[in-house]
Amino acid sequence: MMGLLLLLTFACFGLTIWAQFKVKGNYNQWSKVAASSGLTGAEVARQILDQNGLYDVAVEPVRGVLSDHYDPIKRVVRLSENNYYGSSIAAVSVAAHEVGHAIQHKEQYSMLVLRHRMFPVVNLTSGIAPFLLLAGLFLGFLELFGLGVLFYAGAVAFQLVTLPVEFNASSRAKDILLKNGFIRNQEERGVNKVLGAAAFTYVASTLLALVELLRFVLLFVAATRE
């Protein structure tokens, strides 16, 4: 059983790496294709925010590649410079996705609310979990190892909650882009490629985390029977 899990771990790790390459590949491809609207990512983000009454949510450029995110504390949509200033299919897709999170925040989307509530605890426990697991494993402290497994399970639960949040934001983005004429029907393929690849990275990393959790649980159960 442990051998099978080890193989699954390597397979999921490979899938995660492949997903990252897929994201970069699709992004690079569609960042070279101009959107028919001619609007930049920043302009699309601003228009969608205003249409949803989110006038107080700012849109700011941030350094880095694919460093785009929504800050729920400062209520700011931050777009990487290529997406902020660019008017490509990739730029408007990413911009609409991040605004999707701002809309989720406004509407108190249940999974986003749960994710925000989990974050402070998981942020702490996920950093401690590896040390507890290693200490428990090499020092033979079963209680420490069990606590590490519990903390790691919390991090996995956080990843599972993140999945519907990301998929919902992408779904909102696609609908808004089409409904408001930011893209045409023939451009929808590019939007699907960009956002679909990004979503798959979350799926791959969650699968890897689940397999790792199962391996830790089996190790813990085996140790308690010795």
UniProtKB/TrEMBL annotation:
<protein>
    <submittedName>
        <fullName>Peptidase</fullName>
    </submittedName>
</protein>
<feature type="transmembrane region" description="Helical">
    <location>
        <begin position="194"/>
        <end position="223"/>
    </location>
</feature>
<keyword id="KW-0812">Transmembrane</keyword>
<feature type="transmembrane region" description="Helical">
    <location>
        <begin position="145"/>
        <end position="165"/>
    </location>
</feature>
<keyword id="KW-0472">Membrane</keyword>
<feature type="transmembrane region" description="Helical">
    <location>
        <begin position="121"/>
        <end position="139"/>
    </location>
</feature>
<dbReference type="Pfam" id="PF04298">
    <property type="entry name" value="Zn_peptidase_2"/>
</dbReference>
<dbReference type="InterPro" id="IPR007395">
    <property type="entry name" value="Zn_peptidase_2"/>
</dbReference>
<keyword id="KW-1133">Transmembrane helix</keyword>
